[in-house]
Amino acid sequence: MTPVQGHCDPRFAGVRAVFERHFADGEELGAAVAVFHEGRAVVDLWGGVADRHTGRPWEAGTPALAYSCTKAVTATALLLLAERGQVDVRAPVADCWPEFAARGKGGITVEHLLTHQAGLPVLEESVPAEEFEDQPAIAARLAAQAPLWEPGTAHGYHAVTYGFLVGEVIRRVSGKSAGEIVAADIAGPLGLELWLGAPPEVAGRAARLSAGDRVPPAAAPSGTQAQPPVSEAAPETPASPGQEVARAMADPGSLLNRALASPPVQRLKGGANNPVMLRAGWPALGMVATARGLAAFYRELIAGRVLRPATLRDATRRRVSGPDRVLLFDSSFGLGYMRPATTFLTPRPGAATAFGHTGYGGSLGLGDPEHGLAMAYIPNRLSNAVAGNLRAYHLAEAAYAAL
């Protein structure tokens, strides 16, 4: 069995037991989990290998791409600007980005972007690989599109486009990229091990991601890592979400697959392991972080040291809930933060109070101000959530049990 290293408070021994079991059962390649309770580090564990090709071990400071866990950090950067009066989330996007009003989008608000209601989950144009690091250019392509549904009438997970949309608003009102705001105003001052645009030294020691369940990247929605197995869900019916997702996964032209490949990361050699992806800092899925760094982000957030408590309370208020037009399962969002739903499965004690975001392949960032809990889990073996991987959920369940 792969030895697990690090610190675990005896009260939270259940978290260590679950983490070790995942390695023993062959579910992990390399991974880290961190938990803070009432501001105190109670779990900081890691194990396995960071690169299966070389056997490089996962160490205390090994970072990894956390995929859509990024979205909550990007939302926080925008909310910081809102607190400073630089942007009004209720105002039309076109107020700060005039070109965005094209094709009937003049009424889309910043809040619509943060809550996945804008109707722009897909890039209709093919993006050249050389444009992957030119976020404003990709945003301009989205500005020229028409929404796929009437904005504000439904929500559907903007898996990749979320970052270019929210990131461009950040750039328009601040003159800086989302990654620059994160570095200057969040990660830097607080000493957090997270980067939206990894510098060479960080990218060089990042864990290398590996396929787990041998499915195409587009087959596992970023927001469904905590998804219960279909076999354990309600009985299947012809119209059940499980069967709808299975059909969508098998159809390359489905909205689900198109949204998850907008633009397709697999066009780069090595996919998300390509240095271009690690340094580009896409604001929807480009954050590189340690589990300790991401958990500490939520610790600082719920302590009121990133946003004002009133801002966070409003931002975590549910804006949308119910069937997701892209993911097909139920999802729920505040202003950029996931709330408990099928796509953000949360143990019962946190069902009314937890918020955060999952990331493709299994990663998780979670905060719960009511319980004083902040945690993160980042693996490098990516799993197909629809096939029933519940690693993050089981770790969260053990953390809540310790309370």
TrEMBL record:
Pfam hit, one: Beta-lactamase
Gene3D superfamilies in alphabetical order: DD-peptidase/beta-lactamase superfamily
Record InterPro entries: Beta-lactam-related, Beta-lactam/transpept-like, Beta-lactamase/esterase
Beta-lactamase-related domain mapped to chain residues: 17-399
Renumbered residue ranges of the record's region Disordered: 207-246
Source organism, top-level taxon: Bacteria
Stored PANTHER family: BETA-LACTAMASE-RELATED, BETA-LACTAMASE-RELATED DOMAIN-CONTAINING PROTEIN
Protein name stated in the entry: CubicO group peptidase (Beta-lactamase class C family)
